[in-house]
């Protein structure tokens, strides 16, 4: 099903509960990009992956810029770093709200916003989920696969691999701030291989032919 919307920021009008935030920060970093994307980039929260100043996921920080440069090289991303345009790519966070001092959300705060994240993920209905970092990867594997109990959450080993989910193909991404020599190229090579294949979703099961 195609989403009919020309909104690139918060296309489904999510309104989670906000708290007071630091001066100059957005109340939240809403989902952003192509609402009909095949690729869905998933971060943790604005304090770690950016966007508190710009309002756009994975912008305004070295970590975010490092990651989006890989997607820019593959023509998912264009235009200015702080106001990028996404093509066939949607990005959001497990916890979208900006918290004072960029602190880590509590377990209760993650739980409170989980339903908003889940609703947006299902509305986008992308083929490829790309969780960034340990927390986002853990959440996606627990909620959208039956394999979490069999997978050790070792991000250096999981980085840029393929994991079958319930209707999705999942490609975990190691925190860009922790990337070593080959991590950038491993991610780029994996994305190129997916793009060059005939990826599609059939009867709710993500498959790749090629």
Explain this structure.
This protein has 210 residues and is α/β, with parallel strands linked by helices. It has a single domain (32-209), classed as Uracil-DNA glycosylase-like domain (Uracil-DNA Glycosylase, subunit E), CATH 3.40.470. It is 30% helix and 16% strand. The protein has helices at residues 46-49, 62-73, 107-124, 133-144, 155-158, 183-196; strands spanning 32-33, 39-43, 77-78, 85-86, 89-93, 128-131, 163-164, 169-170, 198-202, 205-209. The strands form 3 sheets. It has a 6-stranded mixed β-sheet with strand order 1-5-2-6-8-7. A two-stranded antiparallel ribbon has the order 3-4. A two-stranded antiparallel ribbon has the order 9-10. A hairpin with a 6-residue loop joins strand 3 (77-78) and strand 4 (85-86). The radius of gyration is 16 Å and the shape is globular. The protein starts with 31 loop residues before the first strand and ends with a strand. Pfam families: UDG. Residues 30-178 form the Uracil-DNA glycosylase-like domain. Keywords: 4Fe-4S, DNA damage, DNA repair, Hydrolase, Iron, Iron-sulfur, Metal-binding. GO terms for molecular function: 4 iron, 4 sulfur cluster binding; deaminated base DNA N-glycosylase activity; metal ion binding.
